[in-house]
Amino acid sequence: VRSSKRSENEPLVIAGGGQTNCCEPLAEFVDLFVLGEGE
Length: 39
Known about the structure:
Low-confidence stretches: none
Largest sheet: 2 strands, parallel
Oligomer: single chain
Distance between the termini: 28 Å
InterPro entries: Radical_SAM_N2
Domain Radical SAM: 2-39
Mean pLDDT: 87
Number of strands: 2
Helix content: under 10%
Strand order of the largest sheet: 1-2
Organism: marine sediment metagenome
Protein name: Radical SAM domain-containing protein
């Protein structure tokens, strides 16, 4: 579901790791991108 269509009661969608290399296709669905690895 696109982030613009979700209500404030639904959880955030956070992406990181390899998905941040090419994040533009996911930008409509993800609320927050975390750059780098989470180690």
